[in-house]
């Protein structure tokens, strides 16, 4: 059975993970590193299905393992993702969206979640040779959470941890040194097209703007496409062009702050960097807008009042 059949364009990573299972040389920690949206989470799921099924021979039992891993209810698997806090309660991104929560900051993996990992690993695995913990977007851990995870990585017991992150630089060196790095690469155009077609997003292939921003990441392409669909059309048309004067910059800043939550504003910065950079290359803008937009991102991440951030940024760019 090919457990990695659904993972496209990551041959080297598949070979390394398959070989680790066949030789029974499972590392206590893995770092799946590479751009967002290129299959790291899918690879983790496939790897876990293979690992949990390694000593099974009956197809019925293998199918049961696969189903439970995919549904997230296997007793030896803990899948951790960044959360939002709302009135003292942690919410997953999906739960926050369903609750209509206005997201004022990006989600993060919190110290309480790292403590839950420790508790989960304090008991022996129930069905498999080892327990598995996956940390999505591991780069969102604060220093306290990362230091808390370090002890678990040093003495995981009968367990393996998989950290998923966009780059090595996004994690503490002490965490990186305790993990085996598995590199994932952006997809070539043929593989990109195959993934999007299989996922029912073939229409994206004809959108040059989305494909240009995605740069070989199907997940990014889908995310950009969905974000563009959710943005008000009139606002989208306005932000594509630099404000003509200071007054229009202030009006646009007000509109952005009113229409978009902070997380959507952070995405908008990526979008504007792409749009304005193309205009700069074409000679439509006299100076690069990338630096002021990058500063705006840092201000938003540091909880500066969003409207003020956009006012200063847009006024600075249009002058």
How is this structure best described in words?
It comes from Tychonema bourrellyi FEM_GT703. Keywords: Nucleotidyltransferase, Transferase. The chain has 319 residues and is of the alpha/beta class. The chain has two domains: 11-183, Rossmann fold; 189-318, no CATH class. It is 53% helix and 10% strand. A hairpin with a 2-residue loop joins strand 3 (84-86) and strand 4 (89-91). Helix 2 (40-53) runs antiparallel to helix 3.
Q: Helices and strands in order, then pairings?
A:
Elements: H1 11-22, E1 29-33, H2 40-53, H3 59-71, E2 77-80, E3 84-86, E4 89-91, H4 93-98, H5 111-121, E5 131-135, H6 143-154, E6 159-165, H7 173-176, E7 180-183, H8 189-198, H9 208-214, H10 218-230, H11 233-239, H12 246-259, H13 262-281, H14 290-301, H15 306-318
Parallel strand pairs: 1-6, 1-7, 2-5, 5-6
Antiparallel strand pairs: 3-4
Helix pairs in contact: 1-2, 2-3, 5-6, 9-10, 12-15, 13-14, 14-15
